[in-house]
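User: Let's play a game. I give you a shape written as tokens, and you guess the letters that built it. Ready? Here's round one.
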């Protein structure tokens, strides 16, 4: 019986640790969005409107890879339903590629 209780406790601690490590971090995502918007404005000049959407991908373990941002701006040569995705890597904004609006997550956090 004691062995079963230890196993249950161990499983609960492991599950809680996993949830804590991989939890959604809204403050970090806002920082990524701010840096990406600044990068787009510096690179392409100011443009109105700039559409910024979250492109959170929970399949990656690295925090920099999980939090990406999809951007559409007037100065970018994109189709109306396309976005350019950016993320941070070692504090620098890097471009990931172009995606369609259907590729964006449907859920709002």
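Assistant: Ready! My guess for every position:
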């Amino acid at each position: 019986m004691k062995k079963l209780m230890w196993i249950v406790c161990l499983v609960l601690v492991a599950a809680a640790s996993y949830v804590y490590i991989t939890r959604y971090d809204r403050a970090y995502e806002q920082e990524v969005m701010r840096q990406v918007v600044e990068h787009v404005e510096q690179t392409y000049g100011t443009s109105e409107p700039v559409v910024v959407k979250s492109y959170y991908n929970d399949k990656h373990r690295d925090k920099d890879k999980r939090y990406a941002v999809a951007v559409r701006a007037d100065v970018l040569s994109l189709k109306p339903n396309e976005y350019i995705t950016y993320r941070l890597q070692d504090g620098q904004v890097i471009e990931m590629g172009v995606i369609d609006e259907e590729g964006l997550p449907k859920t709002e956090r």
